[in-house]
Design goal:
Layout: E1 2-7, H1 18-34, H2 52-55, H3 66-73, H4 81-102, H5 104-125, H6 137-150, E2 155-160, E3 163-168, H7 169-182, H8 194-211, H9 241-247
Antiparallel strand pairs: 1-2, 2-3
Helix pairs in contact: 1-4, 4-5, 4-6, 5-6, 5-8, 6-7, 6-8
């Protein structure tokens, strides 16, 4: 099992990641409501999950806005503390950098958009399923892919079982992406919504391209570096340079 715990931050976070922190707090508060710690009206939480059969009208939905609303509400529900903690760790490590790159308003649009599109991909994977989808993993998958597009060479410290290992982001996130794709074949037999993860990754890549502000570069550290002119050797001081200039040769 590989769990990210820390990444380096060349931007030094000139702006506090208020949205990322707020999303984490909101997810925790809603989970406390699910657990009965915070009182909520009976049956409210079950109506917030995303179910393909209900979304397409095969089952009865209490109100007309329910299917559309569930595209956004499902991502704030979690099955247990382990489910919640796993998603929030990824959001904690990677979300602040994406928020810094996009800005707060665009990051909100990005996060909710990634989660909603991931939900639609899940619905499309099994149109008649009556298994409810819950969890922030679709939106978080979008954040993770956006991070590697922005900072592929950043160093990320991960726990491999219990051993901390420091790797480049493209190795860590590349392995994450590969595992989601490999597991798509077994998605129908698993409790993990791999199609939602896959949809979130695709949505995150597309939305980053659409929403990134001007000047925010992608995969910058992986591009060939051009030497500045000042670093080029001064040939005017080489032997024979004066003779070449006098004879008109270049």
């Amino acid at each position: 099992m590989v769990v990210p715990i820390y990444d380096e931050n060349p931007w030094r976070l000139p702006h506090r990641p208020i949205i990322t922190w707020g999303l984490i707090v909101l997810n925790i508060v809603i989970y406390l409501a699910e657990s009965g710690v915070v009182p909520v009206p009976d049956g409210m939480l079950t109506r917030l999950a995303l179910m393909p059969a209900t979304f397409l009208g095969n089952n009865v939905m209490p109100d007309l806005l329910g299917p559309v609303r569930s595209l956004f509400t499902y991502m704030f529900l979690h099955a247990d503390w382990g489910h919640l903690l796993g998603n929030m760790i990824f959001l904690w490590v990677f979300g602040d950098d994406v928020e810094e790159a996009l800005g707060r308003i665009r990051f909100v649009i990005f996060y909710l958009g990634s989660g909603a599109l991931a939900g639609l991909i899940y619905v499309a994977s099994d149109l008649h399923s009556d298994i409810p989808l819950i969890g922030a993993s679709g939106a978080v998958a979008g954040v993770v892919v956006a991070y590697v597009m922005l900072r592929p060479c950043a160093k990320v410290t991960v726990l491999v079982t219990i051993i901390p290992v420091r790797l480049s982001a493209y190795w860590v996130i590349g392995a994450f992406v590969l595992m989601q794709i490999i597991n798509l074949d077994s998605a129908s037999r698993s409790e993990v919504a791999y199609w939602c993860h896959f949809g979130g990754m695709v949505a995150g890549a597309l939305l980053l391209l659409l929403l990134r502000p001007a000047g925010v570069k992608l995969f910058d550290c992986m591009r060939p570096q051009r030497l500045p002119d000042a670093a080029m050797p001064d040939t005017s001081r080489l032997p024979g340079a004066d003779i070449d200039r006098a004879s008109g040769r270049h």
